[in-house]
Amino acid sequence: MVTLILILVFGHYGSINQRREGKRIIKVGIIDGVSTDHIKFKIKKRSYISNTQEVDNHANVVWSVLTDGLEYKNIQCFEYSVITSDGVIDKRNLIKALDKAKSDHLNIINFSGGFYMDDLEIEQKVNGLVKSGVIFIAAAGNTPQGIADFPARMNNVISVGSKNSKGISNFSPIKKVDIFGKGEEVRYHGEIYKGTSFAAPYIANKIIAYSLNQDVSIRKAKKEIVDFANQQGKDKKD
After folding, report:
1. Which Gene Ontology terms cover its molecular function (predicted)?
2. What is the torsional sign of CA 71, 27, 195, 165?
């Protein structure tokens, strides 16, 4: 079995003109582990791992952050389970998940995982999704002051690092990072989590909320938020 070891267990092809009760519907997916069914959103699930009972809180926390404050009537949720509870991804399963995500015509994908090494086949699949219009967001990894992991460091992927109230988190990469989101003091059912895994869905949440509240496309919302964050960073340096 060919496997890639997950080194990061942190956390517009689809038409945004679909309507439900007068509101646009945004189709959002996560490529992650296996979640439980207790959030208010109905999730269409596809698992590519053999033991679907291997539930840990990683996917649960990702969904909690991603859907925070959003209305269920505006969101369709998709989950592609490829990460086992011990943090291993079979490359073939990830390829299948990327293919299925494309056929589901999503607007935005969050992948809270990453690898040290690039992989051409995975890169081509991600490029295909982005070319079709999907916003692909990935956690940058937990390599302090280092370079973002793959696929986050790809040019057409939104690479998300972690920040806290004082600045960039001490565990966050800083190179090949497009934007920093809240990745510390993330609370879920009485526990506290940290990592770029949870910064990534934080940014996904902001993009979705902006798109809905401002009634703009998901692509325009992405550009506005990333550009604003970059301008803030530039202002702090000046």
Report:
1. serine-type endopeptidase activity
2. negative
16, containing H or E segment = none
Q: Burial of 7 by CB count in 10 Å (0-12 exposed, 13-18 middle, 19+ buried)?
A: middle
pLDDT tens for 134-157 read 999 999 998 898 999 999 999 999
State the DSSP code for 25: -
pLDDT of residue 42: 87
Q: What is the largest CA-CA distance in the chain?
A: 52
Q: What are the structural domain ranges in the chain?
A: 15-141+158-237
Domain at 15-141+158-237, CATH from 3.10.20.440, 3.40.50.2300, 3.40.50.200, 2.40.128.90: 3.40.50.200
C-alpha dist (Å) from residue 188 to 161, 191, 194: 20, 5, 11
Active-site residue list: 32, 58, 197
Residue 237, pLDDT > 80, answer: no
191-193 vs 186-188, strand pairing mode:
antiparallel
Q: What would you report as the CA-atom Rg of the chain, rounded to the nearest whole angstrom?
A: 16
Please report the pLDDT score of residue 7 as a whole number. Answer: 38
Q: What is the distance in angstroms between the CA of the first residue and the CA of the last residue of the chain?
A: 51
In 93-134, which ranges are E strands?
A: 108-111
Apex 206 CA angle, 200 and 212, nearest 5: 140
| Spatial distance between the Cα atoms of 55 and 35, rounded to a whole number of angstroms | 6
